[in-house]
Amino acid sequence: MNETLVQTVKTNNFEMDYAKFGTGARPLVLLPGMSLKSTMSVASMVADSYKIFKDDFTVYLFDRKKNFGDSYPMEQMAIDTAEAMDALGIERACMIGISQGGMIAQLIAGLFPQKVERLALGSSASRLNDMSRAVMTEWKRLAEAGDVEALCSNFIDKVFSADTIRKYKKSLMRLNANATEQDMKRFCVLARACLDFEAYANLEKVKCPTLVLGAELDQTLGVIASREIAEALKRNGTPVELYVYENYGHAAYDEAPDYRKRILEFLNRR
């Protein structure tokens, strides 16, 4: 963990780690997806990958709250993140949610519309389909079994493109080889939260301008999930843009070279 980058916000109810970077006048909340280990362990890498945001925004990369126990419903993740924002004095912010982070971001935008100025959702969903339910069920099973190697391998295969897998799978496996029993328990709870997640109706409450980024080859949540979000928002009269990466899978947010630039241009649009 990068001790100079990662800090802890304390509320009356919990503690939550976050990383803060950038010097821009506008706050930007970044909510990452599921990972075998906390995103805080690679916060400096995330900060570097989002460096094009640093002049326009002060970026807050939030983790999930500490010690959340054996159950942590997605709606509670949203409520907790909103509470952490309050504790840091973030009244209103642009928001980027990636994968499960996008699920949380949708809920925040619906439950606390005054808090979200503009919203970008990357490779996310408002509810699971048969394919994503099967993926999450298998991840949950492997996490419960404590099979770090099998879970890591399956995760990489479902999330990354064939080219990335061919070039970097061994390196990605090594990054997570020291995942602990506690890491596995944490991941299992996050997977269970996805399996219980149902927020399609919540999209009616999302009114802020929204950019939905999907990936045609997404083997985790499926491109249909991104299209479904965009169609529902459009039907409800919410200003929405949909862009689908044709030749990328779920991790287009890490692999497509123009991904962050596309989001930055959207967030800066007036």
Written overview of the protein:
The structure is a single chain. The chain has helices at 43-49, 74-87, 100-111, 130-145, 148-159, 162-175, 181-195, 223-235, 252-255, 259-267; strands at 6-10, 15-21, 26-31, 57-65, 93-98, 116-122, 210-215, 240-245. An 8-stranded mixed beta sheet has the order 1-2-4-3-5-6-7-8, with helices on both faces. Helices cover 43% and strands 19% of the residues. The protein has a single domain, classed as 3-Layer(aba) Sandwich (Rossmann fold). It is built from 10 helices and 8 strands. It starts with 5 loop residues before the first strand and ends with a helix. α2 crosses α3 (100-111) and α5 packs antiparallel against α6 (162-175). The chain is of the alpha/beta class. A hairpin with a 4-residue loop joins β1 (6-10) and β2.
Name a few traits of the molecule.
270 residues, alpha/beta, Rossmann fold, 8-stranded mixed sheet, 10 helices, 8 strands
Compute the average pLDDT. Answer: 96
Instruction: Give the N-to-C terminal Cα separation.
Output: 36 Å
Shape: globular
Give helix and strand order, one letter per element, not per position.
EEEHEHEHEHHHHEHEHH
**SS content category:** alpha/beta
Tell me, what is the CATH class? Answer: Alpha Beta
**Most strands sheet:** 8 strands, mixed
How would you write the strand order of the largest sheet?
A: 1-2-4-3-5-6-7-8
Tally of extended strands?
Answer: 8
* Low-pLDDT windows of residues: none
As a percent range, the share of helical residues equals 40-55%
